[in-house]
Amino acid sequence: MPLATSRPDLTEPEAAWRSLRTTTVAMFVMILLVAFESLAVTTAMPTVAEALDGTALYQLAFVGAIATGIVGMVVGGAWSDRSSPRVPLTLACAAFAVGLAVAGLAQSMEVLVVGRLVQGLGGGAINVCLYVIVGRLYPGILHPRIFAAFSSAWVLPSIVGPLVAGLLTEHLSWRWVFLGAAALTVPVWFALQPGLRRLEDVDGTAAPGSAGRLVRAVVVSVAMLGLGLCSQLAAPVSWLVAAACMIVTLVAVRGLLPAGTLRIVRGLPAVVADRSFVNGAFFGAQVYIPYLLTVHYGFSPTTAGIGLTTAALTWSAAAWVQGRLGMRLSHRRAVQIGTVLVATAIGLVLAAVVLLDAPVPVVVASTLGGAGMGFVFARLSVLTLHYSEPGNQGANTAALSIADSFGSSASIAVSALVFAAAGAIGGGATPFVAALAFTFALALVGAALAGRVAQRS
After folding, report:
1. Counting Cβ atoms within 10 Å, is residue 291 exposed (0-12), middle (13-18) or buried (19+)?
2. From 50, 106, 298, 303, which residue has the greatest number of CB atoms within 10 Å?
3. Which tens digit of pLDDT belongs to each residue from 381-409?
4. Which CATH number covers residue 63?
């Protein structure tokens, strides 16, 4: 369905691309900063916890930012739909920078966690507002290319982020992992202003009510926070808490997603649902691959990360390929290719462990999975805007981001329970096989749903 959006008065897509070059670069860097703080902080956090005597709050520093990010997504999306993303993006950038500054200057772990909560709130809203800007400013034919750039902005920190964070922590201070990104947010926000001034306000009277959605977002955040922490409990209490949190999340999240998402109706609902399954499968598996290589195959911590690095590289390369192909590669075909590659990759990892008991095929298969994500991730973002109008772009992109967070968080939490249960039954590779089998099942569902992302003609 065509979009009725306000865009530059330019008939040639390449002319539009050139006229928005500064905005594109600024958005890329802004997402890069959000991604860096989501990923690279993992390297610095052990030092942070030791310096601030905050081991007890270690996990909360991670899952708390994810939880508040959901609230930021909903608020940023609803606000953008009702007028323009200008004001919500400004406040989101401010919250992101202030949260980072609070974390970087913290003298206790409690204060650092507060900073992380504020940072997550701003980071969640930033992503949604930038998606709305793409829908309002860029011609649809350029969306595969711009979302390929966004994918690269998320992938790059997974390659160099830990190294940069490690160097800052070792040679300067862990505080600069937070303060450096906070300082860079300010000039990037200024670079976005020319593009923001080109946005026109829209009539957002038909936008979904924000009060009820905000309450639901808070409930989902709390439930997902509990889901992320349930692995700290002993069985069977951990399973009961996980089941309760999952039920609460599914009930509350229903009002935040497009109608029909839980029933996987064709079109936008299937796009959002598929994103959750694919995200959960890929990131759920990626958590265990370095662990498998280290514990079962005796790799060093440095070499065990090679599978993640190669997957990040192929993700970026595949995203670039689908972006250059544009509409010569249909949305449905790109999603089908990507989901099948992700499922195949996880299946090959399983086969390598069960049948070959060899580490090299594990790394190769992980690399293949990254290529699959490069195809599917960007195109599901493109499809979300394709099915949206100016009055609901924020709500729909927020739903897609919530699906990302829910899929990965739920998968990691449940696979941790599966891992622990399997470990109680047998040793060796048994826990890894059980956890990977769970993520493989999610990947198969994602591949099966790929055909439903396109509406019937």
Report:
1. middle
2. 106
3. 989 988 988 778 888 888 898 888 888 88
4. 1.20.1250.20
